[in-house]
Amino acid sequence: MPWGTEIKRGLLGISIKRFIARRHIDKETKKNIRDIIQNAAFIVDISGYALSSQWGWLSSVNYLSNIAISKVWNLTIWYLEFDNLVFGI
User: Is the pTM value of this prediction over 0.70?
Assistant: First the structure.
């Protein structure tokens, strides 16, 4: 399933069209992702820690979007960094 900025914007209920190019994702896929999030017990983030000035602002926005989605949907995030499991937010 896709997990890009358009999906994250939809899950957060925000519009940032001026800043991020839109990619067309069909309504059925969006509905499936929303159903998955509604029925999820937690989120596992396998990207490691990406909040850094070294990765650019868009990487930081994507990283923070995952945290915001977990808060909006009342889900715990588990972060995986290399071989360590770190309890998240």
Answer: no
Beta strands across the sheet bearing 84-87:
42-45, 76-81, 84-87
Torsion of CA 43, 47, 48, 51, to 10 degrees: -100
Helices then strands, each counted (H, E), the chain = 3, 3
pLDDT digit string, tens, across residues 8-29: 877 887 655 554 455 677 888 8
* Intra-chain end-to-end CA distance of the chain, in Å: 23
Structure tokens that stand for 73 in this block: 């949907």
